[in-house]
Design brief:
By secondary structure, this protein is an alpha+beta fold. The protein has one domain. It contains three helices and two strands, in the order ααββα. Strands 1-2 form a two-stranded antiparallel sheet. The protein is globular and about 35 Å long. The two termini are 17 Å apart.
């Protein structure tokens, strides 16, 4: 099995990632969930503009809607 490319990741998060299902899954933790995004620590695949952050963990904890989390994920392409 191979790692997905940045283009494949973007396509998944843009076209298939369903924030409604995430909201259902997190219903009892509404407003309290934090998301950890690991950009490229293990795969070494990451957007070049995040080269310096590729081995760190990004925490997404300030958002109003899950669509904002999705936008961040599309930006980082973990």
């Amino acid at each position: 099995m191979r790692y997905s490319t940045l283009q494949e990741r973007k396509q998944f998060y843009t076209e298939e990632f369903d924030t409604r299902k995430v909201a259902e899954w997190l219903e009892e933790h509404k407003g309290k969930a934090k998301f950890a995004v690991i950009i490229g620590r293990h795969t070494k695949i990451y957007p070049q503009k995040y080269r310096e952050d590729a081995s760190t963990t990004i925490i997404i904890d300030e958002y109003q809607r899950l669509s904002e989390v999705r936008d961040d994920i599309i930006e980082f392409l973990p």
